[in-house]
Design brief:
CATH superfamily of the largest domain: Jelly Rolls
Strand content: 15-25%
Number of strands: 12
CATH class of the largest domain: Mainly Beta
Number of helices: 10
Shape: globular
CATH topology of the largest domain: Jelly Rolls
Helix content: 25-40%
CATH architecture of the largest domain: Sandwich
Distance between the termini: 27 Å
Structural class: alpha+beta
Strand order of the largest sheet: 1-4-5-11-6-9-12
C-alpha cells in the first residue's frame, strides 16, 4: 500500500537565487519567507504554505514566480491577498478565491500581507481527468463556485489530517483529481452555460439535508418529482458525468473530515451522526477509502498523549 509523503517548507529567499519549494517552485527576488508543508500523492502535489509579507517595492528585479511546466496548478488563496501579474495584466485574489495555472504559465505573485496559499499540482496520468477543462491562460475561478463546491473544504480537511497521519495515495489522489476536475467543470459551467434551476435546487437540498441518514438519491428524485434516471440524466447534462450520488457522498465525507481532529472532541458515533452516515460502519467505509484506517483508530492516532 502506498502512502503520501511530505516535506517541510521553511525557506528564506534572497537576491535572485532560485529557491525550490518542491513543485510548484519559486524564484526569489530580494527577500521573502515561505513556511509550510507539501504532500505528494503519486503525481499529485498538495502544498499548504504561508508567504510572509513582501511586495513589488522589495523586488527590484521582479517578484517570485511559480513555474508550472509539465503540470497544471490550481491555487487557492486561503488567507491574505495575492496580486498575480502575467503578460502585462494584473489580478487581485483575496481569501476565498482561486486561480488555474495551465502548463508553461509563469505568473508572478506579489503579497503585501502574510498570505496562506493551498496549491494543487497535477501532472502525468492524474492530469488527464482535466482534459477539456484547462484554460489556455491563467484564469480566475469564480468565487461563488469555490464557495459552493466541496473541493477546497475537502483539501483543507485533508491537509489538516495529513499533518498527523500518512494518507493512502491511490484513493486520495483519485479523489483530489476528481474534485479538481469537478471544480473546473463547475467553473466552466458557471461561465458558459445557464445553470439549470433543477440542479441548483438539488445542490441546495443536498446541503440542507445531507446529515439525514435516510436521505439518498431516491429522496432527491422524489423532492424534484422526477425519476432517479431523469435525475442522473440531469446531472450528466450539467456536469458531464458527475452523478448526484457522488455529490452527496462528497458532501458527507467533507463534513466527516472536518470533524476528524482532536479539537472537535467528537466520538466516531458523533461524527457519523453529524455527517449523515447511518452507522459508524458506513462512515468507516468512506474514511477507509482515503485513510486506510477506521474512524476510531484515526481519532486515537490524532489524540494528544
Amino acid at each position: 500500500m502506498n502512502f503520501s509523503t511530505h516535506a517541510t517548507i521553511d525557506v528564506v529567499g534572497r537576491a535572485t537565487r532560485e529557491v525550490e519549494l518542491l513543485p510548484p517552485q519559486a524564484v526569489a527576488q530580494d527577500v521573502f519567507h515561505a513556511t509550510g508543508t507539501q504532500w505528494q500523492f503519486g503525481d499529485i502535489l498538495v502544498g499548504d504554505f504561508r508567504l510572509e509579507a513582501f511586495g513589488d517595492d522589495r523586488h527590484p528585479q521582479g517578484p517570485p514566480r511559480y513555474p508550472t511546466e509539465q503540470a497544471v496548478n490550481v491555487v487557492f488563496i486561503c488567507e491574505g491577498t495575492a496580486h498575480v501579474s502575467l503578460r502585462g495584466s494584473s489580478f487581485v485574489f483575496v481569501a476565498g478565491s482561486g486561480v488555474v495555472l495551465p502548463t508553461n504559465e509563469l505568473p508572478a505573485f506579489y503579497c503585501t500581507v502574510p498570505t496562506r496559499i493551498l496549491a494543487v499540482s497535477l501532472r502525468g496520468p492524474d492530469a488527464f481527468v482535466l482534459s477539456g477543462l484547462i484554460p489556455e491562460q491563467t484564469t480566475a475561478i469564480a468565487a461563488a463556485v469555490i464557495d459552493t463546491h466541496p473541493a477546497l473544504e475537502f483539501l483543507l480537511a485533508l491537509v489538516a489530517t495529513a499533518q498527523q497521519h500518512p494518507i493512502k495515495t491511490p484513493p486520495a489522489g483519485a479523489i483530489i483529481a476528481k474534485l479538481i476536475a469537478s471544480l473546473l467543470g463547475a467553473d466552466q459551467d458557471w461561465h458558459t452555460r445557464p445553470n439549470d434551476p433543477a440542479v441548483t435546487e438539488v445542490l441546495t437540498v443536498i446541503d440542507e439535508r445531507y446529515r439525514e441518514p435516510a436521505f439518498d438519491v431516491k429522496a432527491i428524485a422524489r423532492h424534484l418529482h422526477i425519476t432517479t434516471r431523469d435525475l442522473e440524466h440531469l446531472f450528466d447534462r450539467q456536469f458531464g458525468g458527475r452523478r448526484p450520488s457522488d455529490v452527496l457522498l462528497e458532501r458527507k465525507l467533507v463534513a466527516a473530515m472536518t470533524l476528524l481532529h482532536p479539537d472537535s472532541a467528537c466520538s466516531a458515533e458523533q461524527i457519523a451522526a453529524r455527517s449523515g452516515f447511518a452507522t459508524v460502519a458506513a462512515l468507516d467505509e468512506a474514511i477507509d477509502s482515503v485513510y486506510g484506517l477506521d474512524t476510531k483508530t484515526l481519532l486515537a492516532i490524532q489524540s494528544p498523549a
